[in-house]
Fold:
Amino acid sequence: NTLFLTCAQEIAKLAIDADRQCPSVKNIVEALDSTPLLHTLREEYAVWHIDPPDGETDPLILATLAAMNRSEEAQRRIDFDAHVAQLRSNWRAMADSSTLRAFKTIRNKVSAHTDVHLIGGKYKLLDIGQLGIKWKDLRESIEALQGLVELVGLIVRCSSFSWDSLDSQLRKAASGYWNALPEKAHATPRSTD
Structure:
């Protein structure tokens, strides 16, 4: 129960925290509404400063390389705009989801603050079972956040992050940890999957 509540609270924090200093997805997407910022990021994404090969002086080759570079820059601008549109679309889908609203309710009324209601002469806590969220909702929300973070990375840093590689590294580290323990420290074999 505590693990579930903590995960729900962290998802809400990463996704929708409105504090100006918080790098939540909500704040990042809203910052991209700034036309000057978006223009700067588009140009940084599209314009690569690549020098021609050393010693190349043939004007025809230099002109061809410059034309190829302009064409590739134009394509990268199109790609950038597509990434921004995808980020906004994916964010809107997550922000409008009943699951994220339920996580926000957990954060605001259960874990960050304790909400009690007088029902039948007794004070009762919010019944999170009535929110209709399950463990699979945590996984789906984490996967959605990973996709959003990847898009932010592409847009802001023109880079991506390999979640599969991270998962593999974490599995190996967990396996190494469990295998390093003396046998009686863990009576049953543990799975890292």
Observations:
- The helical segments are 2-16, 25-31, 35-46, 59-95, 98-111, 135-157, 163-180.
